Amino acid sequence: MKPLRAAATGIWDFVVGDDWRIAIGVVAALGLTALLAELSTAWLVMPVSVVCLLAFSVWRSARRT
What we know:
The structure is a single chain. The chain has one domain (18-64). 78% of the residues lie in helices and 0% in strands. The protein is built from 3 helices and no strands. It has helices spanning 2-16, 20-35, 45-64. Helix 2 (20-35) packs antiparallel against helix 3.
């Protein structure tokens, strides 16, 4: 059971990393892209999401210091 727990913890640390809010944003962006997959503008969701999530991350980091 210990190796299974170690693997799950490693996967969690890889996916979530330092900020769980960014991980949720990525999952939401992927979900929205999947929902809009039939439309021709679905490809636009990820670049816009990356810019917004990066700006949010930098803003939060700057606010902390």
